[in-house]
UniProtKB/TrEMBL annotation:
Organism: Fodinibius halophilus
Domain called HTH tetR-type: residue spans: 7-67
Keyword Transcription: yes
Binding region for DNA: 30-49
GO MF annotation terms: DNA-binding transcription factor activity; transcription cis-regulatory region binding
Superkingdom to which the source organism belongs: Bacteria
Record has DNA-binding as a keyword: yes
Protein known as: TetR/AcrR family transcriptional regulator
Pfam families given in the database record: TetR_C_33, TetR_N
Assigned keywords, A-Z: DNA-binding, Transcription, Transcription regulation
Amino acid sequence: MNKTEEKSLKEQIIDAARKVLLAKGYRNFSLRKIAGEIDVSATSIYLHFENKDDLVHTLMEEAIARLNKQLEQKVAEVDDPISKLEALAREYVSFALKHPREYQVIYLISSDEMTRYPKEKFRKARKGYEIVTDVLKEGVESGLIAESRPRLAAYTFWAQLHGVMSVVLSKRLDNRIEQEEFIEEAIDHIIKGYQLRTSL
């Protein structure tokens, strides 16, 4: 098997794994089921992944890296901290809407259900929080944001956005409320929260 074929098989495994994980959940996720999806032996999967947790970690890592890359690109396009926060919020929402499967994989797994996420991968995963923390620190230094604990505020920022997108992607939004309007209103409230604190 040449490198092209190996890469193709690995990609097929990852695509099938994402599909099975989201459809069946972690507890019903197995390499045998992945193998059945793409008509290969489970042994073939072990050539690329040590076990099912290694495969799930790879799914999470790829999704997180993709999101973080887009966040970095978007924040580099604007100058002031408030505009950067809004750009980050909008890009986060855009990613969730355009790539719902990848987004759901990031948050799907409970830490007590699987092998602990490797430290070296967690450091990469934490990059998104660091981007927001840096923007908040920049705002504090420039006098535009009043945050005594930027890191805590960064986690709160992500938690608010995740709550918004969880409602949207799980289709639990009140059908009397238009989705785009809901998202716009939510982002506006989140960003204004930082601006209001600044004015106190």
